[in-house]
Amino acid sequence: YMGTLEFARPATSMNTSFGAKLALRALVALMLVGAAHAVLHEWLQLWVHNATAVGRPSPREGTTTVFSADRLIFFGGGLNASSSDVWSLTVDGVTPGTWTKRVVTFSAATLSALPAASSGHASIAANNAMVTAQANTGITVILDLATWVWRRGYNVPYLGNSFGFAFEADAARALLVGGRSELGVPVDSLFSYTPSADTGPLGASPWAFIDRLQQATWMERRFSPAVALCSPSNSLY
User: For residue 74, what is the enclosing H or E element?
Assistant: First the structure.
């Protein structure tokens, strides 16, 4: 954490140059940043090396990670082959994390099996659930993070992979950004998604296309973008 430092003006006049004041502020800021970095580094070392579990995820790429209720939730990914594993890691900021491989089931009312092994998908955490736009299938699946039961959501608006997906709680909506088509071509599509309105594949669509304003500057076509939706500006970064 780095904040703004204000120094109290002394009662008597001091002959302190402006440059000396800047140097003093810079020195204090560096001391704070250095101390914070040291503490953070020490905590991360403990967290990574002392994480406990019967097992832990294998090395992988193409996975997604969301944060919900003091834990990170990991889904899918892989190296030589994709997986459909769901892992959680506690991150309370006090004790070393604990890895847990979650035993998940599915709702027979909307799914005939667990979600397929996946890489290149995109996930968000919203309303105590993980919403995942699967790669190249057009399917949205939703995992209840209290019961660990998957259900099917409304289909993704377009087939593709490597999307950017971000949720903003105050606005109660998410944005799905870019990605690439099944043919590997980067796209610049932008859709909003309302998690609370997603009742499944037969309900009303929770997706809405966001069109560019006429003559507006638009983002470059890209895949695997890192995106964040922030309030109060309600801006996408």
Answer: strand 71-75
